[in-house]
Amino acid sequence: MFEVHSDAHRNRLYITLAGYLEGPEREKAMEAILAEVAKLVRGFDVVTDISNLHASNQEGFKDLLRANAALRLKGVGHIIRVVKIPLSRIQVERVSEAAGYETESADSLQEADRRLDALRSGREEEA
Fold first, then answer.
1. How far apart are CA 48 and CA 90, in angstroms?
2. Rounded to whole angstroms, how far apart are CA atoms 39 and 99?
3. Which of 36, 37, 82, 125 has CB atoms 3.0–4.6 Å from 6's, for a disulfide?
4. DSSP 107
5. For 2-126, CATH number?
6. Exposed, middle or buried by CB within 10 Å (0-12, 13-18, 19+), for 107?
7. Domain coordinates of the chain in residue numbers?
8. What does the pLDDT look like over 13-27, one tens digit per residue?
9. Among 46, 40, 38, 51, CA closest to 99
């Protein structure tokens, strides 16, 4: 199961991935992510809720790498992930490391939003 939506006002992408995502569903998720990213401007932030996502096979790992590369090419800012399943956390950390950027973890979507709002405020004050 996946759900993707964007908030243009906050310049933020929200991704929820849950269960076991098989190849065709992962491809649909990638398409949905890219469609929503097109609605945002460079520097957009991402909240990814993978609190109910189960670890994936090697093909799933490669798809996650491709998704992260696509976000990077589109100019992603901060990424905060909501993660609860330990094996999924490890896999996602490996993907982020392989993609060459750091992500933060949060315990809830609300906490992720608060952190990103604070980061955004800090960026605006510095400008």
1. 15
2. 23
3. 36
4. S
5. 3.30.750.24
6. exposed
7. 2-126
8. 999 988 888 888 888
9. 46
